[in-house]
UniProtKB/TrEMBL annotation:
<keyword id="KW-0413">Isomerase</keyword>
<dbReference type="GO" id="GO:0003978">
    <property type="term" value="F:UDP-glucose 4-epimerase activity"/>
</dbReference>
<protein>
    <submittedName>
        <fullName>UDP-glucose 4-epimerase</fullName>
        <ecNumber>5.1.3.2</ecNumber>
    </submittedName>
</protein>
<dbReference type="InterPro" id="IPR050177">
    <property type="entry name" value="Lipid_A_modif_metabolic_enz"/>
</dbReference>
<dbReference type="InterPro" id="IPR001509">
    <property type="entry name" value="Epimerase_deHydtase"/>
</dbReference>
<dbReference type="InterPro" id="IPR036291">
    <property type="entry name" value="NAD(P)-bd_dom_sf"/>
</dbReference>
<dbReference type="Pfam" id="PF01370">
    <property type="entry name" value="Epimerase"/>
</dbReference>
<feature type="domain" description="NAD-dependent epimerase/dehydratase">
    <location>
        <begin position="5"/>
        <end position="232"/>
    </location>
</feature>
Length: 319
């Protein structure tokens, strides 16, 4: 059965993959975006350029029917946030904005709201055991705090209004069009730059963007998803050194990984003021994604190898 889905943040890295997956399923897709002429072909574009979705309910088009929302739009994690009050800025977009969209969608007839949260709503690292959805959240930065507050606010709104809330917590997302640290890593590998990653054996969960998009589509359609929180990963966790070697293979570049002792990397991080970045690089961050598999019967349609192949092919074609 096809459905009518509104996607916020539809012109972003994940949003584009989600719209594609919905269109391939035969759904009617509308994109709520801030800039005109950025939605994919076949997607109805709705431009709302107000900050934090102010007035979204009053501006909702009379002819825009909606069964479900996939809410991707967010103030994203920034390494160097220069805002005077970062937590207030994150809350305005990620909490207040999400609740505005949920309320407007509910009044327009939506039955389900899929909120794309983050592993950072729970933790920055895992200690020996993968993080489960039932673990007690302990976010450490304004972004993670705002995502957790949004989860809780939406669950409460769902109880009050009857809107079915589904929370999805991905780890780092990669794929064609990826930016930030993953792109920097590919840049360095493609240029043959020696990297001090040879001794890092801590594993980190990842999710290929098409796997995440497929899971989000399932979360809009499967009645068993209502009221659930799901971790979504590729189902296989690589160490940073394994990831770098796999990318080097796909990029047809040498893997120049220098086995620098972890203790030295920590010292270098402290000396350069980059301890947080080094900790993210050398620390374990694994998610247990068995709940979505057991609850919905969902499994990643693409392997890690396929995801890295597609990402590297995009990189070689565009850089």
């Amino acid at each position: 059965m096809t459905q009518r889905v509104l996607v916020t943040g539809a012109n972003g890295f994940v949003g584009k993959a989600v719209c594609k997956a919905l269109l391939e399923r035969g759904d009617t897709v509308a994109a709520l975006v801030r800039r005109p002429h950025t939605a994919a072909e076949g997607v109805r574009e709705w431009v709302v350029d107000s900050a934090d979705f102010q007035g979204v309910e009053q501006r909702w088009p009379a002819d825009l029917q909606c069964d479900a929302v996939i809410h991707l739009a967010a103030r994203v994690h920034l390494m160097h946030d220069t805002t005077a009050d970062p937590l207030a800025a994150y809350r305005a977009t990620n909490v207040t904005g999400a609740l505005r969209v949920a309320a407007a969608a509910r009044r327009a007839g939506a039955r389900r709201f899929v909120f794309v949260s983050s592993v950072k709503a729970v933790a920055e690292s895992s200690a020996g055991q993968p993080i489960a959805e039932t673990d007690k959240p302990a976010p450490t930065d304004p972004y993670g705090i705002s995502k957790l507050e949004a989860e809780r606010g939406l669950i409460e709104y769902g109880r009050e209004s009857g809107l079915e809330i589904v929370i999805v917590r991905p780890p780092l997302v990669y794929g064609p069009g990826v930016r930030a640290n993953f792109l920097q890593l590919m840049n360095a590998i493609a240029r043959g730059i020696p990297l001090p990653l040879g001794s890092i054996d801590a594993r980190r969960s990842l999710v290929f963007v098409d796997n995440l998009a497929d899971a989000l589509v399932h979360c809009t359609t499967d009645p068993r998803a209502a009221g659930q929180t799901f971790n979504v990963t590729d189902g296989r966790d690589l160490s940073v050194s394994e990831l770098a070697r796999a990318l080097a293979t796909q990029l047809h570049a040498p893997a120049r990984l220098v086995p620098v002792p972890i203790a030295l990397l920590r010292i270098a991080g402290r000396l350069t003021g980059r301890s947080a970045r080094v900790d993210r690089l050398i620390g374990e961050l694994r998610l247990d994604s068995s709940h979505i598999c057991e609850r919905l019967g969902w499994y990643p349609p693409h392997t890690v190898e396929h995801g890295l192949l597609q990402t590297a092919a995009w990189y070689r074609a565009t850089h």
